[in-house]
Amino acid sequence: MKRLVFALLMTASVFAAPASAQEGHPLKGSWLGTWTGNKIHGNDVLLVLSWDGKNITGTINPGTDNIAVKNATLNPEGWLVHIEADAKDKSGQPLTYTIDGKIENLPLANRVITGTWKDSHGDTGAFKIGRQ
Amino acid sequence: MNLLRVLRSVFVVALIFASAPLVLGHHEPLAKFDDKKPLRIRGVVSLVDWRNPHAHVFVNVKTGEQVSNWAVELESPIDLEANGWSKTTIQAGDQIAVTGIAARDGSRQILGKTVVMASGKPIFTVNVMPPPMPLSPQPTPKWPDGQPKLGSVSGGVQGYWAFPSATALVENGVSAPMDEWGLLKNIGDASKVAPMQPWALQLYKERQQRFLRDDPMYLNCKPPGGPRQFELGHGVQFVEDRVRQRIFVLIGSGNNNYRIVYTDGRSHQGQVGGDDENPLFYGRAVGKWQGDTLTIDTRGFNEDFWFTNGGLPHTDQLKLIEKISRPNLDTLKYDLTVDDPGAYTRPWSATWTLRWVAGKEMPRHLCQENRS
Q: Which of B114, B196, B220, B341 could form a disulfide with B200 if both were Cys (CB 3.0 to 4.6 A apart)?
């Protein structure tokens, strides 16, 4: 089901009109992409982030996995992104994700975050999401 | 006199005019052109493209045996026509010389500062001067109940507000020289412009370092929400609908849009076209007269535009308090307080004035096809 929802989202994004740049806080908004090699939560990832003036909050895969972002920071020097989120693995055991990346194409509508993800079980891979 | 001598004299004239102040344009010219690359071309006009947002003249330039076509970018037809020029001022086949600055990307484009006919006659120069102030200030026009009029004066004389004394936001009391599009003369002044949070300061610096080329008002015809509508070259006009208790702010630049300020006591909630879940380019504005000052409280902005020339960031937490007064016939005073805890460390203020342009209709510049 999750894959079907994701496939529909991807299809919709292909046919949608080109997004205009979001001119506020660079992380705010919906991001869609992949965390390659993630055997527990799949290859595809959806991330919704918000900014209240002090803190970055958000959810990974809202509606399906609902993984709350525990801690997220943005270092404007280089636009470095760091995200931590607590999830559960398939057996229900705690699992912590750590994502480190960098915002690229910041002024443009098609800005992306590229970097790596890793989890507390030792799995790791490439991470790439684009602003929708 | 051979052609070479004619053109030589033409360039002398051109150089004289090259020192004239650059006129208002509709976007930061340095986003596209490099002021460190002065350029002169001469040749034969092949086409005049007389349209918004900029007129273009195409010129065949001969170098040795090779002929290449150059595009000369000029002001908008509105500004050119206001200075007496028309699309027939020069025509295909005319010999012209152009001085200006070259395109950053190396393409065959030049921003024309001066265009001179082979005869030496200068053309397509624009000088935009504010109307002269009267020797003694004339009184503020008022409605019968004594409330100041923000729009046209009695007798139906038209007019609009333009020539803002500041064309980009800078906190009151701060000196940060910038050009009319808000591009800082010294990027080191960036942190002084307003009390920005670190992310906002870095974003502002990067927009500046890219010569404001990402401005969505020019790239995508996004509206000039917030105070930006009072910073632009083609001015604003107030239409006070006292029966329906609202004020329309008509905007001469950008995408020629309008903003509604409700003065009927309604709240920010439930306004036409917007609610908390639907942030807007112009936000939701409620106004109240306090003595001779109209105080406008606006909130509910989206984040899809730049709220000022120069590219200061904002978030959807932005709240604006605008205090507008007309101390005399010819002056509009605009006091602004920016309160955006998403992008700034504290509320801050800026103040400027606009001049009344009497007896004229507001120019109708249109952002078309995502070009402004």
A: B196
DSSP A45-103: EEEEEEE-SS-EEEEESTTTT-EEEEEEEEETTTTEEEEEEEEE-TTS-EEEEEEEEEE
Say yes or no for a CB contact (<8 Å) between B203 and A76: yes
Q: What is the mean pLDDT of chain B?
A: 87
Helix, strand and coil in chain B, % to nearest 5: 15, 35, 50
Contacts of B304 in chain A (CB under 8 A): 20-23
The per-residue pLDDT for range B100-137, each reduced to its tens digit, is 999 999 999 999 988 999 888 888 777 777 777 777 88
Give the C-alpha separation, B256 to B246, whole Å. Answer: 19
Share of chain B above pLDDT 90, in %: 65
How confident is the model at residue B125, as a pLDDT? Answer: 75
Query: Global pTM?
Result: 0.86
Q: For residue A105, is pLDDT > 70? A: yes
Rounded Cα distance, A82 and A117, in Å: 10
* Count of alpha carbons within 13 angstroms of residue B369, beta-carbon side: 4
Q: What are the chain A neighbours of B343 within 8 Å (beta carbons)?
A: 24-25, 53
Q: Tell me the C-alpha to C-alpha distance, in Å, between residue A87 and each of A60, A114, B58.
A: 10, 21, 62
Determine the distance in angstroms separating the CA of A122 from the nearest CA of chain B, rounded to an integer: 32
Half-sphere exposure of A60 (CA within 13 A, CB side): 27
Interface test with B, best of A25, A77, A111 (most B CBs within 10 A): A25
Pairwise CA distance, residues B202 & B94, whole Å: 48
Is the predicted pLDDT of residue B18 greater than 60, yes or no?
A: no
- Asked if A53 and B314 come within 8 Å (Cβ–Cβ), the reply is no
Please report where in the chains the tokens 């591009």 appear, as a residue. B183
> Residue B325 pairs with which residues in a beta bridge?
B293, B333
Complex ipTM value: 0.86
Give A127's strand partners.
A35, A115
Distance from the A79 Cα atom to the nearest Cα atom in chain B, whole angstroms: 9
| Chain A residue numbers touching B319 (CB-CB < 8 A) | none
